[in-house]
Design goal:
The structure is a single chain. It is built from 16 helices and 6 strands. The protein is mostly helical. The protein has a single domain, classed as Serine Threonine Protein Phosphatase 5, Tetratricopeptide repeat, CATH 1.25.40. A two-stranded antiparallel sheet has the order 1-5. The chain has a two-stranded antiparallel ribbon with strand order 2-3. A two-stranded antiparallel sheet has the order 4-6. Helix 11 runs antiparallel to helix 12. The longest helix has 26 residues.
Length: 428
């Protein structure tokens, strides 16, 4: 049942990403802050607060004897978030050793990494807790911690609605954007494999493209009930770098209001302005690993590969959904593959192209959900009762997490621990 579905997805996810990252060119050490002249204090703080986050993301697997891969996806994400929260504290504690600008830049990079991890959690699990304190982070650091028994409700957060988590992540990324380096993460050098402005622009474009899904808190009501992209507005900054969000009101000459599709196009165009092309396809790759498969003693962990090919297809799709012509970007991708130009750009053609050229990335589940086809993708399992409602578009909250934090509530469709859907998604 869902067990087989989930196993299939995870194997595709893990195998695909491992193969993808085997070709990433992030061989440079990420232990330098910038090309600017840096003093010993900045370098030391970076080495202790920022570099460990990238080392963590570079892991091939989590060493574990637990047989619950779904729990360890959650564990990997929240251990990284915990590490980021401690890094922010470390920067604050040592702020007297550096300038205010250096502090802002250091914290911006940490917040960007944390936002990326929250993005992964929100996409997989829907309603999740937003943990911003180091104290609360400890509850998610390890299920084996001896200190867990001493935690009280004051340390624990309930889940936020998916739309709230989405707004938090989007705002975080917008806020840190001006403080990040404009260097290309995919090039060899000091910024290789690090989160820079282009990486954040990619994430903002991707989140905008999927905003109809991520702002829909009642996903079990079905695909057709979701909000419409033209009715969802975002504030984006103008060239002067002014405040990005101001109670959803545009500041004069500083920001402008765009719908979902316009926002996606805006951030796609930002990547083009930053010099990206199909000749420099890799925007971000999160690992130095060149191992095709993980160790059999560990559980594979989430990986991130962002490509400019994806950006062009995102822009093409956003144009079409916004009632405009998406042929230019689509045909750029097709030409790169040696295919003839398409005379028409349709959503179906976009999806077909995405399936063909983005096979190495963990995005097909996301694509199928956005196109309203995910619940139809498993026709080999017609006995999955109620799948058309959309409950399988998110995974269940691992029971071990609920045991650690009783404030967590199971996602709809998986509430009964003994139900077939719940048990199969738990990999029992």
């Amino acid at each position: 049942m869902v067990k087989n579905i989930c196993r299939l997805y995870l194997w595709v996810f893990f195998l695909g990403t491992m193969l993808a990252f085997s070709s990433c060119q992030n061989e440079q050490q990420k232990n330098l802050l910038s090309e600017d002249a840096i003093n010993g204090s900045v370098s030391e703080i970076y080495s202790n607060a920022v570099a460990p986050l990238y080392d963590y993301m570079d892991k091939d697997s989590l060493e574990t004897s637990d047989a619950d891969p779904l729990y360890h996806v959650w564990e990997y994400i929240y251990q990284g978030i915990s590490l980021a929260n401690h890094s922010l504290d470390f920067i604050d504690d040592n702020a007297s050793l550096i300038t205010a600008d250096q502090k802002d830049r250091l914290k911006a990079e940490v917040r960007a990494v944390r936002a990326l991890l929250y993005y992964e959690a929100m996409d997989k699990f829907g309603r999740i807790p937003v943990v911003l304190s180091s104290e609360e982070s400890a509850i998610y650091a390890s299920a084996k911690s001896d200190s867990i028994a001493s935690f009280t409700d004051v340390y624990l957060s309930a889940q936020s609605e998916r739309s709230e988590v989405f707004q938090f992540i989007f705002s975080e990324l917008q806020q840190v954007l001006p403080y990040l380096s404009a260097q290309h993460s995919g090039k060899e050098g000091r910024f290789s494999g690090r989160i820079t402005k282009p990486v954040v622009n990619y994430l903002l474009a991707k989140m905008a493209l999927n905003a109809e899904i991520y702002t829909f808190d009642d996903w079990t009501k079905g695909y057709k009930k979701r909000p419409k992209g033209r009715n969802i507005d975002f504030m984006v900054q103008t060239a002067d770098g002014a405040s990005l969000l101001n109670d959803l009101k545009a500041s004069e000459n500083r920001s402008k209001k765009l719908n979902v599709w316009e926002t996606c196009i805006y951030y796609c165009d930002a990547l083009a302005a930053e010099g990206y092309s199909l000749d420099e396809d890799v925007i971000f790759c999160s690992t130095n690993s060149r191992t095709a498969l993980p160790s059999r003693t560990g559980t594979p962990v989430a990986r991130f590969l962002f490509r400019y090919t994806d950006v062009l297809l995102m822009k093409s799709e956003a144009n079409i959904r916004n009632g405009e012509d998406g042929r230019t970007e689509l045909n750029m991708v097709r030409a790169r593959q040696g295919k003839p130009a398409a005379h028409r750009a349709t959503l179906n053609r976009i999806l077909e192209e995405r399936l063909a050229v983005l096979s190495r990335e963990d995005i097909h589940r996301q694509d199928l959900i956005r196109f309203g086809m995910f619940t139809d993708a498993f026709n080999l399992y017609p006995y999955l009762k109620g799948k058309s409602s959309g409950y399988i578009t998110v995974f269940p909250i691992p029971q071990k997490c609920i045991d650690l934090n009783p404030k967590l509530v199971q996602n709809k469709g998986y509430e009964v621990e003994g139900s077939s859907a719940y048990k199969t998604m738990r990999y029992d």
